[in-house]
Amino acid sequence: MGASTSSLPAGELDRISIESGLSKQSVLTLYKRFLQLSTHRERDSGQYFLTKEDFLNIEELRLNPLGVRIIDAFFADAEVGEREKVYFYDFVKVLSHFRPINKNKPHLWNTREAKLRFAFTMYDLNKSETITKDEFKNILQMMIGANVSDEQVNSIADRTMREADKDNDGYITFQEFCHAMEKTDIEQKMSFHFLA
Fold first, then answer.
1. Residue 43 has what pLDDT?
2. Of all helices (H) and strands (E), which one includes residue 112?
3. Which residue from 121, 136, 109 is spatially nearest to 72, judged by alpha carbons?
4. Is 171 helix (H, G, I), strand (E, B) or coil?
5. Which stretches make up the EF-hand domain (predicted)?
6. What is the pLDDT of residues 121-151, one digit of tens each?
7. C-alpha span between 191 and 92 (Å, rounded)
8. Cα-to-chain-centroid distance, residue 195
9. Of 33, 101, 162, 172, whose CB is crowded by the most CB atoms within 10 A?
10. Cβ(41)–Cβ(3) under 8 Å?
């Protein structure tokens, strides 16, 4: 499994480092991991890519109750979803959401709002730009499994909807989600410190 070469095409390292805000070393670390996971290569360009099946072969994602949602995040970009292939650039773009925020060097891919948008998409199962009580319950059940009764899950979902759905329309919008997450330190909760 995986590709054997470990160098990025000429100019790609600098471009991806600049565009992602990641250090060159972090980009290279991600590239080595990407190549380990890649089982496909374009005939024309020679570019490696991942499919959903490749992600499903990653044991950590298979075991994670939100693994399918995490995998979906890699395919959320319309172009990526249409081609059903994740190239290295796409891989970095998603993972750069987990870089610790550097307030002295703000970066478009890694702002508080970008992290919140990413988290929001994890709950928005039908990609409607809103979160329903059923979607929230579905994610809760994925996270806690059979450890909590349906009654308790319903109670948590009801309380969350009452608190977050400010206009009482039965949906949580992105703005309502951001408001509900105001006191959450999303910058720390969504950061892998090896990405710098």
1. 93
2. helix 112-123
3. 121
4. strand
5. 111-146, 152-187
6. 889 988 899 999 999 999 988 888 778 888 9
7. 14
8. 14
9. 172
10. yes
pLDDT, position 164: 94
Q: Are 173 and 179 in contact (CB under 8 A)?
A: no
What is the per-residue DSSP string for 35-95? Answer: HHH--EE-TTT--EEE-HHHHHT-HHHHHSTTHHHHHHHHT-SHHHHHHT-EEHHHHHHHH
In what helix (H) or strand (E) does residue 130 lie, and over which residues does it extend? strand 130-132
Burial class (CB in 10 A: 0-12, 13-18, 19+), 165: buried
pLDDT over 70 at 196, yes or no: no
Instruction: Find out whether 101 and 112 touch, Cβ atoms under 8 Å.
Output: yes
The DSSP symbol for 147 reads G
Q: What residues form DSSP beta bridges with 173?
A: 130
pLDDT digit string (tens) for 74-92?
888 767 778 899 999 999 9
Structure tokens given for 102: 């550097």
User: Phi/psi at 173 (nearest 5 deg)?
Assistant: -85, 170
Query: Which pLDDT band holds residue 4 (cuts at 50, 70, 90)?
Result: very low
Q: Is the per-residue pLDDT at 106 higher than 60?
A: yes
Per-residue pLDDT at 91: 94
